[in-house]
Amino acid sequence: MGCSLLCGRGPEDLRYFYGEEEDTYRVQVCDRCSGYLKILDTRKGGSVDALAIDDILTAHLDLVAEEQGYERKAPRLWGI
Ligand SMILES: [Zn+2]
């Protein structure tokens, strides 16, 4: 997946990080637009029905991203 959800740039500017002991949730950050998306990977667990709750439960990932200077570009957790 490229940065189509953020600035539309290619994958060379993207990287991911994960929470501790959880790869169900990840944060995609783009160094070109300084944006990030928080993503739930439903192939590894979780449900798209509970995105609003999971979004709150993974608020620590937002803190990590914001501490690194990234700005959230999507209003809610993104389920894939
Ligand atoms: Zn971008």
How many strand units? 5
Largest sheet: 5 strands, mixed
Strand content: 25-35%
Q: Determine the number of helices (DSSP H or I, runs of at least 4 residues).
A: 2
The gyration radius over C-alpha positions equals: 12 Å
The ligands bound in this entry are: zinc ion
What count of domains describes the coordinates? 1
Terminal Cα separation, in Å?
A: 11 Å
pLDDT average, as an integer?
84
Task: Please trace the helix and strand order, writing H or E for each element.
Answer: EEEHHEE
Low-confidence segments, given as residue ranges, are: none
Q: Portion of residues in helices?
A: 10-25%
Which class of secondary structure composition applies to the elements?
Answer: alpha/beta
What would you call the shape? globular
